[in-house]
Amino acid sequence: MAETVLKVSGISKRFGGLQALSDVGITIERGQVYGLIGPNGAGKTTFFNVITGLYTPDSGNFELAGKPYQPTAVHEVARAGIARTFQNIRLFAEMTALENVMVGRHIRTHSGLMGAIFRSASFKAEEAAIAKRAQELLDYVGIGKYADFKARTLSYGDQRRLEIARALATDPQLIALDEPAAGMNATEKVQLRELIDQIRRDNRTILLIEHDVKLVMGLCDRVTVLDYGKQIAEGKPADVQKNEKVIEAYLGTGGH
After folding, report:
1. Do residues 102 and 116 make contact, with C-beta atoms less than 8 angstroms apart?
2. Of 45, 48, 151, 47, whose CA–CA distance to 104 is shortest?
3. For residue 17, what are the contacts with CB-CB under 8 A and spacing of at least 6?
4. In degrees to the nearest 10, what's the CA dihedral of 212, 214, 216, 222?
5. pTM, whole model, 2 decimals?
C-alpha cells in the first residue's frame, strides 16, 4: 500500500470579500510528482502559501507523513518537513552557491548558538558535514562546479537549480515547487524536467505549481485543477485533460 506524504482537506481562505479557496483538498503519495494547475486567479498560489505556512487558513486539516501539522509559520512548516521554492527567486545574492545550500541545511543542525559562538569541536565537525552535504547537493542538481560563485552571478536556470538544492538540504518529506519553469527557455525546461524526474526516481515527493500545462501533463503522476478557488478536477493527467470543466476553464467563454 502506498505511503501518504501529504493529506490536506477542507482548506478555505478568504481575503476580505474574496473567497480565495473553498473546501480544497489533495492527497499525495510517496514518490509522486503532483501537479496543481489552473487559470490565473484560480487560487493556486494561495493554496500553496496556506500549506507552507505563509498564509493562515480559515479552515482545514493538515497531515504530513501521517502526523498532523499546523501551517502557522514558514519555519515551523519547514521543520515539519515541507521545503518550498518561490515563483520569484529568493536566494542570498551575495553568498556563494555552497553557502546558500548550507543555510538550508542548518534547519537540521544540533550545535546551537553557544556552539557557534565558542566554535566547539562538535560545531566545527557539524559545519564540515554541512559543507560536504551542500556540495553533494550542488553536484546532484548539476551545478557543483559553481559552488564558490556568488548566487547573483549564476544564470537564471542555475539559480532555479540552486533553489531546489537548498530545498533538498532540509531533508524534506515534500518539496513544493512554485512555478520552477517560469522564465526558462526551452533547453532549461528540458533540464528541469530531467532533474524533477531524477528527484522522483530517488523516491522523493514533489508538489508542483506550474503555468506550463504541457510540462505538468507530461511530468506529473496526478493533477488537481483549481478555478475560482474551487477544485474542479483531480486525477491522472490523461483524464484531467478530457474533463469538460477543465476545458471550459482554460478555453471557455471566461476567456482565461
Report:
1. no
2. 151
3. none
4. 140
5. 0.87
- CA-nearest of 177, 148, 151 to 162 is 151
Q: How many residues does the chain have?
A: 256
Q: At what angle do helices 156-168 and 186-201 cross, to 10 degrees?
A: 10
Long-range contacts: 74-78, Cβ < 8 Å, 24+? Answer: 75/107, 77/51, 77/52, 77/53, 78/53, 78/107, 78/170, 78/172
pLDDT tens digits for 191-241?
999 999 999 999 999 999 988 888 899 999 999 999 999 999 999 999 988
The strand pairing partners of 4, in sequence order, are: 29
Return the number of other C-beta atoms located less than 10 Å from residue 245's C-beta: 14
How far, in whole angstroms, is CA 88 from its chain's centroid?
13
**Helix/strand number for the chain, H first, E second:** 10, 10
> What's the one-letter identity of residue 37?
I
Q: How many CA atoms lie within 13 A of 2 on its CB side?
A: 12
Cell 528527484: give the residue.
199
At 48-82, the pLDDT tens digits run: 999 999 999 999 999 999 999 888 888 788 888 99
Residue 166 in grid coordinates: 537548498
Strand partners of residue 24: 11
Sequence-distant contacts of 109-116: CB under 8 A, at least 24 apart: none
CB proximity list for 160: less than 8 A, separation 6 or greater: 85, 89, 180, 184, 188, 192
